[in-house]
Request: fold
Amino acid sequence: MSLPIRAALITAATALSVQAAVAQEVNVYSYRQPELVEPLFDAFTKETGIAVNVAFLNKGVVEKLEAEGKRSPADVVLTVDVAQLDSLIKAGVTQSVNSDAINASIPEAFRDPEGHWFGLSSRARIIYASRDRVADGEVTTYEDLASDKWKGRICTRSGTHDYNLALISAVIARYDVEYAEKWLEGVKSNLARKPQGNDRAQVKAIFAGECDISIGNMYYMGLMQADPEQKPWADSVRLVFPKFENGGTHLNVAGIAMTAAAPHRDDALKLMEFLASEKGQAIYAEVNNEYPVNPEVPASDLVASWGEFTPDNTPLLALATNRAEALRLVERVGFDE
Ligand code: FE
Reply:
């Protein structure tokens, strides 16, 4: 085990053991950022009295759970991508959860039939387009991002990021690997600069005149609008919900899985049921600017104002199964170089 990983383990274990004296608690490993999950956990604790302890991670949760084995303090893992959920299951570090309440709240398309993972919110990966330099209707499909007319006009984060790998996986699912490679080569040849930064950094680049369109998850619009420094970036773009020529808009889910070792199984289940409930889902809608997966809960007014779209019908799991191939394509076309 390398030193940095060992250090991370110790830090997380220390953070979690501080709460060990509390009678009722749930321990969470989260890929989601603090500002996105803390409002949910606060509401859960207020309602149930159950404390939630969180270790925030950037990567390596599968390896961490494998290393900790049966002694892992973690009860649940929160992810930002369906492929992350799938890799947890493939590694055997999750357990099946059977809850009528969860099954009634979350449509089948957003959960594992075996109960090993549940989507909690969905997000569209869309196009941010310059208000000044991109005409209404100039870009409407993902396929079009590879067209010559965008030469030197597109900005994006790394092709190896989970969000882009999921999009490339969707292209593979809709067509085939050969088409996806050509498409990715086309997009690469249209880039204004080397892939870098996060989704918001691309909108900043549009604001600065470096590129005209970027690829990003829709909820970042809300975060930028709420941040005085980033508001001008948000104001410089329009949101375009592109679709596949014969499909809809690409969606991914943020979700949850219960660990195989979960030391607080009952309380963890209560947390999962809360997150799937109308109350929990309303927080996803209002605080995170995402789409609730519970059909009883509407999107927030702000998110609804960004536009309507037809979700692509590619099964979510295809995003996970095509991920390795998508990564190979990114490397083969030298997307990040
Ligand atoms: Fe994100």
User: Anything to note?
Assistant: The chain has two domains: 24-122+251-304, 123-249+308-332. The chain has 15 helices and ten strands. Residues 80, 217 surround fe (iii) ion (CB under 6 Å).
